Amino acid sequence: MKYGNVYLGCSGWAYPTWKPGFYPPSVPSKKLLQYYSTRLNSVEVNYTFRSLPSETAVQSWLADTGDGFRFSFKAPQRITHILRLKNCAEPLDRFARAITPVANSGRLGVILFQLPPNLKADPAVLDGFLLEARRFNFRAAFEFRNITWFTEPIYTILREHQAALCIAESDELSTPAVVTAPFACYRLRRTDYSAADLAAIRENLRSHATCGDVFAYFKHEEDPAGALQAAAILEELRTDV
Length: 241
Known about the structure:
By secondary structure, this protein is of the alpha/beta class. 36% of the residues lie in helices and 17% in strands. Strands 2-3-4-5-6 form a 5-stranded parallel sheet. Strands 1-9-8-7 form a 4-stranded parallel sheet, with helices on one face. It is globular and about 50 Å long.
């Protein structure tokens, strides 16, 4: 297995406070993404949860990174938190248009639909939403934050639409490790990871990569711990081919 289909990063890159642990002190703010892409090969853009990026911004992101770099995006809160997956044709269309340059370049990772904790499972709504979203050909990953979603009927719907159950872990909740798509998505949000934890994550990513692309994102904080952990795992995968 080669590391090339494992995409590792954080949920953002614009953190000057990552100097000097991750970014060298000499790297200017406008060059942070460019440097980030020399050590990590993907990023989850959380910006799109609250606002759609301009075409100029998207083109600059593409220009700052290489062909092997992948951009994943968090779906707008209007879709997940306001409309709660119902009647989403218009906001889906606007979102898809905003990220079209990334899709056209072949550098689109996953689209993360992170649902609010107070949204309980509704199989009919999920199925209807995925039918609507199918026309955009997204690799959709769902982060459910209410335990009512973790049932076989929900997994069946995800499998039917080749949508991933995002394997998310935090100090409060961990998602069951159920495979529902030909790709995998991880969000690693625990406060602390031991060396043994990181070794287990590395082996898990390596194992899943034998079946398809794997996208994994560590937590972004004011300190660079997550970025450094992701970079260390990616470097180990690069040297272990």
